[in-house]
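Memo to structure team: turn this sequence into structure tokens by end of day. - J.P.
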Amino acid sequence: MALDEKLVAEVDAYVDRVWPDVLDDIRELVSHPGVADYDQVGEGNPYGEGAHESLRCALGIAERLGLAPTDCDGHIGFADLPGASQDYLATIAHVDVVPAGTGWSQDPFTMTVRDGYLMGRGVLDDKGPAVLSLYAAHFFAERGERLPYTLRAILGSDEEMGMRDAKWYLAHYPEPLFLFTPDAEFPVCSGEKGHYSAFFTSPVMHDGAVVTFDAGTATNAIPGFAQVTVRADAARLPEAEGIDVEGLEGGLVRLTAHGKGGHASLPAGTRNAIGMLVSYLRDSGVLTAQERPFFDLLARIHGSTDGSTLGIADADEAFGAPTCVGGVIKTEGGRISQSIDTRFTTALTIPEIERRLGALASEYGATFEPGSGAVPYLTNPSSAPVQALIDTYNEVTGRDAKPFTIGGGTYARNFAHAVSFGPEDPQLVNPAWVGTMHGPDEGVSEALLRQSLKLYILGIDRLMHLSYAW
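Reply from structure team:
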């Protein structure tokens, strides 16, 4: 059934009218850093005060927009628009962010608008879309029409660290009939690769060349900046593209790599700064015989982004090729530890990944520290709710898009019947100065967000008129 032209015109007028307020609310939410910190937990702050502060801000916006907010003691929040049935449809977005990191050209927590782009940490992932989800619900609240189902806008604050908020929610509240999260790409993502993270750790290395090697802000982010301090003669070290060599006192040298960061699930177009330094150190001749085996292992970790150099590149039809990147490296107690983040397909299992990587670590005299992960998930792309969202997207944009799968991990994987729905547009080419999610100068097209709000309202309207019998 085609979209109602009268409804489309009503939605267009609504978006025009509320847009200045939308920008103000995104700006306010971005100003609260909202980085989850498990070391700063307390009563009512299960993920730290910063994450809860962002959640309180978002719930305040929801209340002002006429929704009924609930703060679940900081674990998660939601805002309801009661419908004719207590059964509910939901959106879920998150108001926590990864740490700002380095390389920004502006204050990451002050949202700015530049040449049609919103800039600031979280404008794309996921504070901007979280505000859109609230304004989508507000559209129906303003109309005063009682929807067939209750509409719930869920707001999480632990998505980036481990999604403990979603697990808490499902332990305390019933599943929604259907849910979408505005935290990926359009048109509709109906499946996600499995994800797994772990660490490789070197043996204790006495009197090595490497003094400190600490880089990366999150295991699920590709670092665009990294530094290592080594014992060496700066005058004897070669020049290399993207690497600064700085002599220090006491026979030390600081090496700084400038790469291009991004999300671990989207390595195309990035340049891992840790990998740059690993290659430089192996080629420079400064490493000791004791250090070289572990750096040879690091070279394999950073030698590909599909896991092929680690022997875990098994692909499948639904998801294609996996990804595997190193995100955080650290020195402690004479050891060096390197994280990996892999997004794997149905062709692999977590036990098999651990078996292969454990054997690889042993080959280089290193230790493999198993981590955590989740299996792939897939929602039937032919189901009525998925088709309702696809039809809405195609009718608004004039495209002929199909559901797809991704390597990123969104809230959708935690729910029985869920997808992700925008807001990124894979066909949109951003200016070079616009950064990616998880990277410096994170930005998003204002026009894209405006269109996304329209799509969310029209999509919710269609979902409200379906029957759900899974």
